[in-house]
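Shift notes (night). Ran Alkylmercury lyase while the centrifuge was going.
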Amino acid sequence: MRLEILQVPDCPNVAVLQRRLEQALAGETTEVTLVHRVIDDPQDATAAGMVGSPTLLVDGCDPFAVAGEPPSLSCRLYRDERGAVAGAPSVAALRDALGLTARAGDDADHTADACCAPAAGADSAAASLGSARFRAAPSDPGETAVHQCILRAFAKHGAAPSMAELASAASPFESPVEEILTRLHASDVIRLGTSGLIEVAYPFSAVPTRHRVRLAHGGEAYSMCAVDALGIAFMLDTDTVIESSDPVNGNPITITVERGEPIGQPSTAVVFVGVRSGTGPSADTCCDYLNFFTDRPSTHAWADLNPHVVGGILGLSEAARLGQTIFRGLLNS
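Came back to this:
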């Protein structure tokens, strides 16, 4: 069996993937050859079948491929059987991909390896954001129904639904709507204010933010951050126009997302993806640190003024793919 790890230089998740491969193969007699291939050119990524770093090929094939996922040099996020996301597949997923039988305790170290620990660079910050948001996705049917009711209301009206609408969404299930809202808040799917009203339902904000998103059908809403703003187009499968501003110089930035492709005005616009050390909801640890900037020099100026924020710069296409990864399918589950 030939295993090939496709990676960008200094990818922080390669060590995690290699350790999990060693755990997955421990005690097996299968003859395995493992090679690393460092790729830093988009054309080389396309030719190799790399859809993010790290990508694992098993005898030349990507067992974790997702239909329609484009070639990429950005951080790759893997969802496990529990819905959690990390920078490498779980041991159980690797054994399945390698055609090996499942073993008890394969994922004992899953939590410790999650890539949400803040490390330097945009890829680690992006993995942190993606991991946190995926872990927060509801799996309970009642929670999912209420969550989707909230998202659709924001998409249509730019505001949270009424309690009557929420109660109607919860009615087929055993739990009262108040209990469901409390659980969604506790798992950081939404944020409730002190009055009990919905203030945040990622990607939406109930109060004005720096990022206003106009939808193709004419509605508009505010998003929590730049990545959330980009992700709305994929969640709703629609074109959007994002109006934002540079936190340093205040200059306006417009991002048009057409057929999944973001176009910036100015064309030099980029996204800083950052995370503050510590624990807490995404609204507190991430959202203030994911913004559009007019260009890279402005982004560097902001980063110099905020050394407590770990992160880096993503191009608009990379940031849009991150938003797509996080929010695509939220209304289809």
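The two ends are 36 Å apart (CA to CA). The mean pLDDT is 84.
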